[in-house]
Amino acid sequence: MMTRKHMSEVPMIQRVAAYLAILVGYFFYCYNFVIIDYVRPYIVDAYDGINLADTAQFYTWQSIGALIGALSCAWFATRFGKKSTLIAITALNGGATIVNMMFTDYAMWAAMRFIIGISLGGYFTVAVSMMIGLFPSNVRGKLTAFASSMFSVALMAMGAYAAFISSIDAPWQSLMWVGGLPPLVAAAVMLFILPSDKKVIAYGEEEQAKQAESGEEVKKGTWGEMLSKPYRVITISCLLLAGLNFYGYQFFSGFVTTYLKDVRQFDGATIGIIFSISAFGSLFGAWVWGAVADKYGRKVNAFGFILAGVMASVFFVAPSDLMIGSLNALAILGLVYNFGLSASAVWGGYFSELFPAHLRNYGAALFHGGRIIGMWAPMVLVFIQERSDLETAMWGSPIVWIVAGLLWLSLPETLKTGIFYKKKDQQQAAA
What we know:
Structural class: mainly alpha
Number of strands: 4
Helix content: over 70%
Order of helices and strands: EHHHHHHHEHHHHHHEEHHHHHHHH
Distance between the termini: 29 Å
Number of helices: 21
Strand content: under 5%
Largest sheet: 2 strands, parallel
């Protein structure tokens, strides 16, 4: 039997290069997740037979695919290895995006967004699981949080590139091509620099490796085991927490521009300023919360959700003409709100750490698994709005964030030096 070396024996330069390669793939995971929202009006104008309502369904199909991809790729990574699974789904992400551009009818666009969604949900699950195995636990929060900040970076890059292609009168399809070609290159690079989990023991998987070397049967995780008695409560809590995250986001961020326009009666320029300044909070917030999670523990970040709930409440009652310096107060409140929400940037690594090594892939998949609950959020908000008004419906957001923060605090702490760490909790989680 081949003896595997530990990840600490892999040269630091290779591990950093591997992280950067995964990070590039993560950027395009984020980019291709949100590109459908950006190109929606162009699709309606360009293709006969596809209307605005149809384009909204593309996101739904993509979300269903992401759910399936997250759940299934956890199993594939466990059976066939993280490296080979990650390379395959990175290539699928790029290849399917390019193939998508060959069709002009609703049925094929829906099918391709579903396939792309599978690759996106799968990418998050396997990338996070592999990423946290490259380095020790005291830097995982920062590593996963920085990766999560790629959503903000992708949005900014997409906006800048869209402005550029508009200035040179290039076709809107150029936005899609950018989402297709680089992932294929990233997949090829990963082939050469990602450490193979068949040859290298990742950080956090030492116990599993000892079992294999001693001739004991090595556990292979399953979803059935995730729902077995030792892990059932944590699994369901993580799914519910992820689902509440999607609800809180949709109840506020998903309709905030509509709220600012229809309820607050702001003009387009003011809405744009409030929106862009608010979004900046997510970018630097992810880095701050990553450092906090590594120093004080993963559960401390739960207070970010409570902060977001408070800020959302103040946002709704603040006067429209209240200024802080030269900025509308709503822009500052929105910035702090998004700063609080970015506390969840550590979830990929944290959800993995809550379970033993053989269930790590499944733990990471729980984030997208929350879509089982969260995919209904827009319809729930519209249901409430139709029976009251938009502002009343959006008040669900601060309630959801505070409940989610309290639920997060009920989960075990995984960082041994964290201020909420209890050895008893960890013994129960590892049972």
